[in-house]
Design brief:
By secondary structure, the protein is an alpha/beta fold. Helix content is 38%, strand content 16%. The protein contains seven helices and six strands, in the order E-H-E-H-E-H-H-E-H-E-H-E-H. Helix 1 crosses helix 7.
Amino acid sequence: MQSRDDFGYILILYYSSHGHVKSLAEQISIGVESCEMEARIRTVPRISSVCESTESDIPDDGDIYCTIEDLKNCAGLMVGSPTRFGTMSASLKYFLESSSSLWLEGSLVDKPAGVFTSSSSFHGGQESTLLSMMLPLLHHGMIISGIPYTEGALSRTKTGGSPYGSSHVEGSALSEDEKKICKAHGKRIAVLSKSLRNLK
């Protein structure tokens, strides 16, 4: 009988400046772990707005910083960022741009991936941000998965959530529908990861 460790881990990689994307990551992790897979939550350091320098290697508090090894060895990946003029944050983009060695090795090919975001308004660029995060994952050969409309919360939500990925409209705590969509998304990536591993 296979144990949880046999299936590896789903890496939940995010950048969050005010805690909203971190809250999404935590809900996604619940969905992953409901499938008896490890959810490994990691963040990235804030980069300087005037040069390509980052914070120290160890954060003062909160989730630890992701390494290229964390990314290389994951069985599946969830990537999250706040919207920044309709695209991902510079900090997350900087980290993903450092992963070219994995692209050369094909380390992420055929692994499932999903994306998530938050914005301060309904029309803050959530869907374009989600799409922008998919692009480097497609270049890595990953299998992108959103959330199907069989998840009822997608049709009910009055706040965040889309078939492209989990999302949140800021201004209050995550709504119950947003939480359900996050959990469904995490579970879907975990199930896909297990299924793809069994095919190998």
